[in-house]
Here is the input.
Amino acid sequence: MSGRLAVVTGGTRGIGAAICVGLKNAGYRPIANYFGNVEAAKKFSDETGIPSYRFNVADFGECEAGVKHIVRDHGPIEVLINNAGITRDGTLHKMSYESWEDVIHTNLTSCFNMCRLVIDSMRDRGFGRIVNIGSINGQAGQYGQVNYAAAKSGIHGFTKALAQEGAAKNITVNAIAPGYVDTDMVRAVPHNVLEKIIAKIPAGRLGRAEDIARGVLFLVADDADFITGSTMSINGGQHMY
Ligand code: CAA
Here is the structure.
């Protein structure tokens, strides 16, 4: 039981919630960040006993205040899971600038914001575990997702660069690229489109949020210190490379 403090962005629903619960069961002290859905966050914290903190990960100033608050309440952040993400799907010729900007800032700039705010303390302490949640659609692209695919692809590059910077300080930085996981985000895909996608998953089913949490637990372990800069695909065999 490590007792390490772990912050999970977007941690009160879907994949993030499963990561928080997985971390708690493994003896970590998870903290969930959330922004949009206050009611869901309250329910999550009440049910799990995992504290949740509201701030917008797309906004550096809000992250700064949020991280300070968490550190003041619980101590230094040793594990960071950048999981928060949104979709604003649409083909490029119909996509607004706002849909582009919202997705880039929430999904990618958030990784800069949060990593920038925890990296000094991780460097000082000579320990850090960072996992960034990318996507199969950042690896392979996806019709109707130039914004999301660009942001998630960016996460994969960000991960490899920061991994090189952190390695000498025992800070590992890895990515997980989930496939289609049974969450609100995927349930929002039009039914007929989703059916065609599921038909292409060799495992024959959507992923479960716990399938992703399992990968996170593997990557954040104290003795996973030689695993850095990698991307773990968890997608039921839908995309391999
Ligand atoms: N490849 C090629 N053509 C496609 C296509 C595809 N994958 N998907 C749709 N098209 C075609 C359609 O066949 C249609 O052609 P016709 O006009 O000739 O019939 C045309 O594109 C327009 O399709 P739609 O009617 O669907 O257009 P729309 O503008 O109403 O919707 C869309 C477009 C928003 C992209 C919609 O198709 C959609 O939501 N697709 C799902 C996108 C997706 O997979 N998002 C993932 C969300 S979950 C997630 O992101 C989590 C994760 O990490 C995996």
